[in-house]
Amino acid sequence: MPKLNRILSALAVATAMVLPAHAQDTIKFKAIGQPLATGLIQKNKEQPFFENFAAKTGLPIEVDYKPIDTLGIKDTEQLRVMKAGLFDIVSLRISQNSRDEPTLLGLDLVGASPDYATGRKVAKAYFDTVDARLQQQFNVKLLGVWPFGPQILFCKKPISKLADIKGMKVRTYDQNLAKFIELVGGTPVPISFADTHQSLSLGVVDCAITGPSSANSAGWPEVTTHQMPLGFQMALNGYAISMKAWNSLKPDQQAKLKTAFEGLTDDIWTYSESLFQDALNCNTGKDPCTTGKKFNLVNVPPSAADIELVRSAVSKVSLPVWAEVCDKSNPTCSQKWSATVGPVLGLAAK
């Protein structure tokens, strides 16, 4: 018996030594990041956060982070690969995945978020609706929403007003924006961000829409001549985690993770706004220009009529077009949008 007691005591000590270490075993997650081609938000905010994940979150989590354009996965397939369990966290490209889940696009209808302050209010108002839908349909939980910033017009032909794009081919990235370009008289051409520089260079399109900082990073001013700083959409993106990964964490760990992502997205909102004005300056060769390369685009200030045309797009085009599509797959889609985002924009609920 004494020998057995000694063995049991030794096992008890060994178990006591193992348990704390086991409790702190590193959790490993796989994450999809934004494309490298999108520039400074990916480079200076997102990637450092994921590469220093344990320090940023205070959790024993190590993340294998890969920008999506290094993975051989299309940015329109993010929700599908998450649902299939291939990744744990995704830097979700909202408009690009709206074909798989139209509810997403309610975050960023054309004309709904002409500035950062309004964009924040819209994102906050609609966050819970999107989160619930992603959990239901894709087993994915939304952790935060952030903007690349106002998406503006770049053209390789002279323009003096928005109506000048009539008859021109314009690169777009979602159906909502495409319908608006049609309204103005342009021909929308869906092209991925990575392929747009070449498409402008070869004349596949005459104009293209993106944020000024992303355009600067990707060299669009090399193949365009005019820039119109009129925001069509805020280019909202999000961070989401698979419910399997989320449920593997304890409640206190979930709270820490949520707080860390809220901090990251708050930081990106602020950074995005500073980048926007600086990039507008860089693209037209003005100072201060601290974040990009100087070019010599002609800046075309939008007129009051241009601004009103985009603002009115919500009720005239983007909301009705989106509602028809979204309500087919999600019967309460537009109703929930009108109840949550409608008041933010001063639109009466239907």
TrEMBL record:
Keyword Ion transport: no
Signal peptide: 1-23
Gene3D superfamilies named in the record: Bacterial extracellular solute-binding protein, family 7
Lineage top rank: taxon: Bacteria
Pfam families in the cross-refs: DctP
InterPro entries, A to Z: DctP_fam, TRAP_DctP_sf
Transmembrane regions listed in the UniProt entry: none
Keyword terms, alphabetized: Signal, Transport
Family: Belongs to the bacterial solute-binding protein 7 family.
Name of the featured protein: TRAP transporter substrate-binding protein
Organism for this UniProt entry: Variovorax dokdonensis
